[in-house]
Amino acid sequence: MDFRSSEPPAGPSRADALPATATAAVKVVIVGGFGVGKTTLVGSVSEIRPLTTEETMTQAGVGVDDTAGVERKSSTTVAMDFGRISINEELVLYLFGTPGQERFWFLWRGLFEGALGAVVLVDTRRLEVSFDVIGRLEERGVPFVVAVNSFPGAPEHPLEELRAALDLPGSVPIVVCDARRRDSSRDVLMTLMRYLHSLAMTPETS
User: Fold this and answer.
1) Which residues make beta-bridge pairs with 24?
2) How many CB atoms within 10 Å of residue 104?
3) Of the ranges 56-65, 124-133, 166-175, which one carries the lowest mean pLDDT score?
4) How far is CA 40 from each of CA 48, 92, 119, 182, rounded to the nearest angstrom?
5) CA of 7: how far to CAs of 12, 14, 194, in Å?
6) Are the C-beta atoms of residues 111 and 98 closer than 8 Å to each other?
7) Could you tell me if 54 and 43 are in contact, meaning their C-beta atoms sit under 8 angstroms apart?
8) Lower CB density within 10 Å: C or N end of the chain?
9) Among 72, 76, 82, 90, CA closest to 46
10) What is the reported pTM?
11) pLDDT digits over 147-161, tens only?
């Protein structure tokens, strides 16, 4: 083989390179039930080309995955989504989106390792798929905010009604977002950053 004519392996593009000014990085996890928009949020806000593990749904998931309300969905995340966003010149967020189906939840342990906080995406048409997700975060002691993804035609409820339905403490922020829009998704992440900062600044009570 003539190695002189072989092309070198492709590396990361210049646009994907980590900014030279970055001095701190934070890991954030995007969680939620099946089909709530986690992959969409990561893709809309990431400043680099996101890594996704979307696969076509097959007959193997029939009777196993709960597709009620998202019957038209044809693909699903089977491992994780990954993206990156610079909050400012020094602070970078690494985003990890989790798979939504319960049969892939065994992957959550690794994805949550080292995470500072989480965003729970909620679909008001299927609030029940969020109950177990929120319960798992509370069991792990992971701080989180709730983002209500505005799907076309989805019912709208006052945030306090949603708080009661999800049995959330008054301290947990709830915001409405459109996961397809970069500015809206960025606002969700900023809400999480402000919440984490407030927790860090609040003295622990005995």
Assistant:
1) 91
2) 18
3) 56-65
4) 14, 20, 13, 10
5) 15, 18, 46
6) yes
7) no
8) C
9) 82
10) 0.75
11) 999 998 899 999 999
